[in-house]
Specification:
The chain contains two helices and 18 strands. By secondary structure, it is mainly beta. Residues 37-123 and 149-162 have low confidence and may be disordered.
């Protein structure tokens, strides 16, 4: 009887340990599910923070083991004391596993972003003490077809002067390095240093003047672009079924080469080299809203870009490049624990350029709209690969824009 009682006591201890392991697995799986629900990424979310404690659901406890049937099983020979300590006990098939099965999910501290980043503002910020390094490669192509008249029109069907037909193909390659750091769980700061390589191919064919063939001119330019600084603050806690509100502020410098310092060919009227900057400081406040709705995340962003006007020189005078109003919206869908898909639309309305308070002739309001599709795949515990494509749907938008990002996070508090 003493031997039988000892075996039953050992078996009860094993069942208690299995119960504890099973409950721990339940808590970790529940934590992972809440992380996926809270993902919201409208251009740049790093690692999502840990789920808020008030929003966690209590883990579902497994059914309590019923030790009554255990004594009815055929008793097994009692293992020696030394063997019991050296080797794990042998379990029945219907007993709970004594060790976690498969690969355990990562904790929220090392869980990388799941929703593809396809627009610039984010809805869940970098955790406190975590730095994210994000190299980016971007390629864009746009084509412009213009007809210019140097003269005047007598009647709608009769023009007097020289008509110039011009086709411009523009290719831009941008390699950038971005850094983001979480000061608190709700406030982060970021910076971005781009290197830009541009190439324009212009084909002109004058009409109403003698010309044997079309003339093609290729102009290039490369160098450091405009460095950017961004601040992001998460206003509320959010959670499953409740939206996140994030306020953003982006400041753009004019560290790139100035377009007003580039020489122009007097024969063709084209620049001899291409600038890598806009030549103006810019300030862009915006607001991001992200709504988790398992298994998707809906997001939207509204922004206003203020391009600060400046005096160029005594001949050119004051130039105001025009401000821009932007709107973005979309949806991110988690496919599994490693991959996600994002769909969205981005639209910006840019005001005309003014010179000395008057609108520049030929400068009109630009409507730039693009359809966005993105993919995100986790490639490590701290890194994930984001690929996005933007297709222009308006005349002023780039025809195609392709981006690759590889954000990696590192905790400085460990």
């Amino acid at each position: 009887m003493e031997s039988q009682r000892k075996k039953l006591q050992d078996q009860a201890e094993r069942i208690t340990e299995q119960q504890r392991i099973f409950e721990e697995q339940q808590r970790r799986l529940e934590s992972l599910r809440l992380q996926i629900e809270e993902l919201a990424q409208p251009p740049i979310i790093p690692i999502p923070p840990e789920p808020p404690t008030p929003d966690e659901k209590p883990p579902v406890a497994p059914p309590a083991p019923t030790p009554a049937p255990q004594p009815m099983r055929k008793p097994k020979p009692a293992p020696p004391t030394t063997a019991k300590e050296a080797a794990p006990p042998q379990e029945d098939e219907d007993a709970a596993p004594s060790k976690p099965v498969g690969q355990a999910p990562e904790t929220a501290k090392t869980q990388p972003l799941q929703v593809a980043d396809i627009i610039d503002q984010r809805g869940v910020l970098t955790p406190r003490g975590t730095i994210v390094v994000e190299p980016t490669f971007q390629y864009s192509n746009s084509s412009v077809y213009r007809v210019a008249l140097d003269g005047f029109t007598v009647i709608p069907a009769l023009s007097i002067g020289a008509i110039d037909i011009r086709s411009v193909s523009r290719n831009t390659v941008t390699a950038a390095v971005g850094l983001r750091y979480g000061i608190t769980n709700r406030f982060e700061i970021e910076t971005r240093l781009p290197y830009i390589s541009r190439s324009d191919s212009t084909t002109t064919r004058p009409l109403a003047t003698p010309a044997d063939r079309e003339t093609t001119t290729k102009v290039e330019g490369d160098g450091i672009g405009d460095i950017e600084l961004g601040l992001h603050y998460q206003i509320n806690r959010g959670g499953p079924g409740r939206p996140f509100y994030v306020g953003n502020l982006r400041i753009k410098s004019h560290t790139g080469s100035d377009p007003f310092d580039v020489d122009t060919d007097p024969a063709t009227g084209l620049q001899t080299s291409l600038p890598t900057g806009t030549g103006f400081w810019g300030v862009q406040p915006s607001m991001t809203i992200s709504l988790p709705s398992d298994p998707a995340v809906f997001f939207g962003n509204v922004s206003y870009l203020w391009n600060i006007k400046r005096d160029i020189d005594s001949e050119t005078g004051e130039i105001d490049p025009g401000n821009a109003f932007g709107l973005s919206m979309g949806m991110g869908l988690a496919l599994n624990q490693r991959a996600s898909l994002s769909l969205g639309y981005s639209h910006s309305s840019v005001q005309p350029t003014k010179q000395n308070g008057k609108r520049v002739q030929g400068s009109n309001t630009l409507q730039i709209g693009s359809l966005l599709i993105g993919m995100s795949h986790r490639i490590g515990k701290r890194s994930n690969l984001n690929v996005s494509v933007a297709a222009g749907v308006t005349e002023d938008a780039p025809d195609i824009q392709f981006s690759i990002r590889l954000p990696s996070s590192f905790s400085l508090l460990d």
